[in-house]
Amino acid sequence: MIAELIEAVAKILFIFGVNMGFFAPILGWVERKQSAVMQDRVGANRADILGFTLIGLLHPLTDTIKILTKEDFIPAGANKLFHTLAPFISLTPALITFAVIPFGGQYEIFGHRINLVIADLDVGILFIFAFASLATYGTVLAGWSSNNNWSFLGGLRAAAQMLSYEVAMGLSIIGIIMVYGSLRLTEIGAMQENFLRWGIFLQPVGFILFLTCAIAENKRVPFDIPEAETEIVAGYFTEYSSMKFIMFWMAEFLEVVTISGIVTTLFLGAWHLPFVSSEKLLSLFGFAGPNLSIVLLMLTNIVTFFAKIIFMIWLQMTIRWTLPRFRYDQIMKLGWKILLPISLINIFITGLVVLLK
Amino acid sequence: MTDLAKNLHTEHMVINMGPSHPVTHGTVKFLVTLDGETIVDFYVEIGYLHRGFEKMCENSTWEQVFPYTDRLNYLSPIINNVGYALAVEKLIGIDTPERCKYIRVITSELSRMADHYTNIAASALELGALTAFLYFVEARELVWDLLESFCGARLTSNYIRIGGLKNDLPDGFKEDTKEVFKRCRELWVDVDKLLTKNRIFLDRMRDIGIMPPDEAIAWGFTGPCLRASGVPYDVRKAQPYLVYDKMNFEIPIGETGDNFDRYLVRMEELNQSMRIVEQALEELPSGPINVDIPEYRWQSKDDIYTKIESLIFHFKTVTGGIRVPPGEVYFPVEGANGELGFYLVSDGNGKPYKCRVRPPCFPLTAAMPRMVKGALIADIVPTFDMVHMIGGECDR
């Protein structure tokens, strides 16, 4: 009982620490540095401690201090309660969804069974979608409660966009659920041990659809119309300042990580290395004894999983810094008239193949 | 549903876009009436950058006007310098030496390139493509380095003088230009890849802000925006000045007059400008760069320090201004954004009696409501970018 409790707390702390302590601040730095590399610039390199700039890695820290000491301003006429609540509603789902994403398999160490997922729900994917939908309320509330025309337009755009893309996103996943026959993410992950059985090979269309919809759901370029700064200033968070402002950004960054996590789990073979099965790895680590070799295997799997996440983050950043943004009606057209029919056709063909097999 | 639409109280939303809004660079204000996202009504309010250029000119000598002209279209200041100098020279009735004309052409075209780079880069930026923006900003930096090498300033050049130039081109300018153009062409290809065939960019630019040729002429369009509508009017070809008639270049024209055509015309003009500069550098004759008329263009410092006549002329022209004969003149040059005209009146005094500028972007900005009414709020962005209003020039 106590061992389980310790295990659960350790896993929660690990995920929370990796997400909030590593990814959320580091992604700000990655975004600046990667865009700098792509654009032939130097990027953030000014903040230093005793002359050591650590290639700009201190900027997340200084940014945090700066943001924390800013005035938290609520505009006159704003709905105080909802204005304060909105960033929390945005941030929480981004944090919670990671609970069902497995970052490793199941291991038997010293007679204790470890399942590397915080909550091994049998409706894992549905849980993610349910909570991702909640994030919509955050942006819509922010847009509405700010008492500002730009925010209002941003909120409306966010509502329309996120709701439309949720439909296509949900349908794009059905194919993979049909192929693996499970909603439990740990099972889907475990079934991808064989490299050729990775989701991306079984459901290539589903992969592209899901990634597109997920980026749209996350409101990043080219789908950033709810915050399109040249059109509606900053959209739904125009009137936000201080920590509340940064909470929207953190939500966005964490969603990048979450999307990468889901894509990795569903399509990129979860925690498995390509071409190397767990048995092979175990025999490779055989020198360390039965228990330690499993620990080594576990660590390898965790590292593999996060390496894949980092690759997906890199991909999303590259997309973000390459493309211009869509127009409002074009996004709607893309979602309803292109992505939705394709995902329906994808489901149909997948169903046929599964049935005939 | 119809009952609901009838009984539901709805009203249009009126919002102020600007004067400090990300899209209204050059400080302008749009008063936009919106029905949802659709623009029902659109007013342009200019004048936020009015500095009284024309009045200031009346209180300064003919030569002191040059620094003010730098601040008209601050993206291509040398073209403004050239336009003003040519107008004054026409009024006086003097002709500059051949080398001076060639250098004026070279510097004008470099300025035009910097202007087009800025315009296309800013458009990409405002559509969300920050990377394309920085690629062209790099190209502009390189061109500005060239400008810096001969006039010492990157933005406010103040390089042209009445009857000549401030100084000659530096040694090795031709080689530097060759190197810069090599890199500029690479960057051009990069941006072309990033934007021209980019589906998102195409969707945002194509069929937006369409202007048919007859209407474009009626609104007073000139420059790339007019040529995008299919009217091959370019001052450099229509009434060649300097040595443009000796240059071998083409005027790109568009078909539909939408924003994408305006973008394509500007992209092609970049290549044509490079062509002109290369030709002019190849054919650049040697000789003096200033007219040898001490009443209008002071002589070299050597002469001023050693010859009493030169010293007297220098003293007279600097303190009292050059004496431009009475009369009035209009002289158009092809600015980066269209026909840039200077209308000057002289009463024989040392100062302009009147200095009126025909800014190319004023009629373009005036046509904004015509181009965006009925479109979506997001369409303001590419349309206004392609109109390329420069506050300094429009408001003066």
| Terminal Cα span of chain B | 52 Å
Question: Would you identify the CATH architecture of chain B?
Answer: Orthogonal Bundle
- What gap, in angstroms, lies between the N and C termini of chain A? 44 Å
Could you say what the CATH topology of chain B is called?
A: Cytochrome-c3 Hydrogenase, chain B
Overall SS class of chain A? mainly alpha
Q: Count helical runs of chain A.
A: 13
Uncertain runs of chain A are: none
Radius of gyration of chain A: 21 Å
- Give the helix/strand class of chain B: alpha+beta
- Number-wise, the strands of chain B total 8
Detailed description of the structure:
The complex is a heterodimer of chains A (357) and B (396). Chain A has 357 residues and is mainly alpha-helical. Chain A has one domain. Helices cover 67% and strands 2% of the residues of chain A. A two-stranded antiparallel ribbon of chain A has the order 1-2. In chain A, strand 1 and strand 2 form a beta hairpin. In chain A, helix 1 packs across helix 10 and helix 11 packs across helix 12. Chain A is globular and about 65 Å long. Chain B is of the alpha+beta class and 396 residues long. Chain B has a single domain, classed as Cytochrome-c3 Hydrogenase, chain B (Orthogonal Bundle). Chain B has a 3-stranded antiparallel beta sheet with strand order 1-2-3. The termini of chain B are far apart. The mean pLDDT of chain B is 86. Chains A and B meet through helix 5, helix 9 and helix 13 of A and helix 5, helix 6 and helix 8 of B.
